[in-house]
Amino acid sequence: MSAALQPYHLGCPSWGDDAWRDYLYPADARPTDYLALYTQVFNAVEGNTTFYARPAQHTLQRWAQAMPETFRFTAKFPREVSHEGDLRNTLDAALDFTRLLAPLGQRVSPYWLQLPASFGPQRLAELEHFLREIGVPVAVEVRNQAFFAKGEEERQLNRLLHGLHVERICLDPRALFSCTSREPAILHAQSKKPRVPPRPAAFTDHPQVRFIGHPQLAENEPFMTPWIDKVASWIEQGKCPYVFLHTADNHLAAALALRFHERLSERLPGLAPLPVLPREPEVEQLGLL
Question: For residue 141, what are the contacts with CB-CB under 8 A and spacing of at least 6?
Answer without folding.
Answer: 112, 113, 114, 115, 168, 169, 171, 210
